[in-house]
Design goal:
Strand content: under 5%
Order of helices and strands: HH
Number of helices: 2
Shape: rod-shaped
Number of strands: 0
Structural class: mainly alpha
Length: 107
């Protein structure tokens, strides 16, 4: 049995977890922590969050859906790989008796 590659999982989780986390971190550090219009910062009472805080807030809102989507993506990758392996094993079983009938024991 050959070792399985983790590359599809790394790609899926990188796109769904790591890229958004890095994006939120970079935007939070680079966007201003005050409102340019001079409006009060915060939530409620006519105030709006500062751009840096708004990015964090949106990141919090996106965390659970992205986590669940990452888990579903890993599950889909695992199911597709299992089906592909099962088909390959079935194909090998079917081809093995035919090759022995030909008189070639190596195939």
């Amino acid at each position: 049995m050959e070792p399985r590659s983790v590359r599809p999982y790394i790609i899926a989780l990188g796109l769904l977890w790591i890229v958004p986390a890095v994006l939120v971190l970079v935007l939070h550090l680079t966007l201003p922590d005050y409102n340019a219009s001079g409006q009060c910062t915060g939530l409620g009472f006519g105030c709006t969050p500062a751009p840096a805080d708004a990015v964090l807030f949106l990141g919090y809102l996106a965390a659970l859906p992205l986590f669940l989507l990452g888990m579903v993506a890993c599950l889909v990758i695992a199911v597709v790989r299992a089906r592909r392996d099962r088909r390959a094993a079935d194909r090998d079983e079917i081809e093995t008796p035919d090759s022995r009938e030909d008189g070639n024991p190596e195939r």
